[in-house]
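Hi everyone,

Forwarding the result from last night's run.
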Amino acid sequence: MNRDRRRSQTGVTLIEFAMVLPFLFVLTFVVIDLSRAFYLKSLVTAAAREGARVAAVTPDPTGADKDSVTARVSRVLSPMVGGTYALSAPTVTVTVDGVVGDETTKVVVTSTFSWLYLGLFNVFGASGFTNPQTLTASSVMRYE
């Protein structure tokens, strides 16, 4: 009797695995894409912070010396531009605000990237994901 029962269960595990496998694939690819997005967002934030640091010590961060700020931001993001990460070249905006002697520099870095598996987000009903996605980060430092 026990032998008949085991024989009737043969293949059930394989069928259950075959039913769950597509969901595991979808979940894996969504996690990979979201992780990639968070990583790129942290890089854009680091680039904005680095640009603000350079702008804070640059004599004319909004004029002739803006290229040094942009070059520093581009250097931080250069390994991720194009290729598998598909990050676009950054747009850098530098502003100086405040009264004389108490100014702050603000650097805003904007870049876009493309989701790899955008259609998988739609499976879960997420509507806020567009392709390409814009990543923006800003950093403010006291102008010296």
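Residues 2-142 form one domain.

Cheers,
N.
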